[in-house]
């Protein structure tokens, strides 16, 4: 009799202990697998990953449109290596959202432990991220942001403050052109609807509203590529003989614009007729800044691999990562940048 009572007590104690450790009753497997809502403790992954197997990460990358993107891909591949205990499933979406949606569905089917998404544009993610949530797979957003109706559809985001980047460029223009109130500005935009475009564009548009003499004489997308940047700049130059500033939303479009201006016999950069502003501050972009071809280059840091790995590590330990994490960034002026500064940089 005594023995039966003891056994029963032991059984009750075990159930409590199991619950206290975050265990779930066997018939509630679906909920156990679902990523928890914001602020909850148990945002740990759905993983059945055996302790000895690698963690499987599916990464949907935007494409290979720019030097920034290449550095970002490299950072992710270096971080999520087999040597570091990961199996990375990498998908290049070639700048198409539908390819990213297909990639995410494949990751779900393959039952990856984590999905990492660098979204091409902000909108259009609700359905597929709901599918990931239903499958209990946590989604980490990196680089550009997403705009979803329910923010429990993603675990967290890490990236840049693109609006702040635009504001930095505008502050530089206000100082540089303090005595030249009338400016004809050519605006080469990134992929329309991407956070990088939205923030950098907003910065300039707000600046143009504040500064009565600033005129956006052309505003067109170059899709963040050098080829498109050049093509668009060539046609803009034909229609606008009098340009003071080119505001290119990334280095590669700035390179394209520089080629177009060179071909058209325009002078630009330090001491030239047209000031060039760029974003990313990639290695090649900074070399052009040091050479005086780009006047001002606003940094955008692509080294997100270790940041995403730190988030995954937190989640593996049962911790809740910060919902939104912004990376600190600086900017470079052609008149003060040095070769040593460029050489000391990791990208
Ligand atoms: O500025 C651009 C790339 O989203 C921050 O995308 C990224 C942007 C970057 O193509 O070069």
Structural description of this entry:
This protein is an alpha/beta fold. The chain folds into two domains: 47-159 and 302-316, Rossmann fold (3-Layer(aba) Sandwich); 162-300 and 332-343, 3-Layer(aba) Sandwich (Rossmann fold), CATH 3.40.50.2300. Helices cover 41% and strands 18% of the residues. It is built from twelve helices and twelve strands. The protein has helices spanning 2-20, 29-33, 67-79, 97-109, 126-134, 162-176, 195-210, 226-239, 251-263, 283-290, 305-316, 339-343; strands at 55-61, 86-92, 114-117, 139-142, 156-159, 183-189, 214-221, 245-248, 275-280, 296-299, 324-326, 331-333. The strands form two sheets. It has a six-stranded parallel β-sheet with strand order 2-1-3-4-5-11, sandwiched between helices. The chain is elongated, with a radius of gyration of 25 Å. Mean pLDDT is 88; it is low at 1-50. Bound molecules: beta-D-fucofuranose. The site of beta-D-fucofuranose has 13 residues, from helix 3 and strand 9.
Strand order of the largest sheet: 2-1-3-4-5-11
For the record, the count of structural domains works out to 2
CATH architecture of the largest domain: 3-Layer(aba) Sandwich
Report the end-to-end length measured between terminal Cα atoms: 73 Å
State the CATH topology of the largest domain: Rossmann fold
Give the biggest sheet: 6 strands, parallel
> Percent of residues in helical segments?
40-55%
Taken as a percent bin, the fraction of beta residues is 15-25%
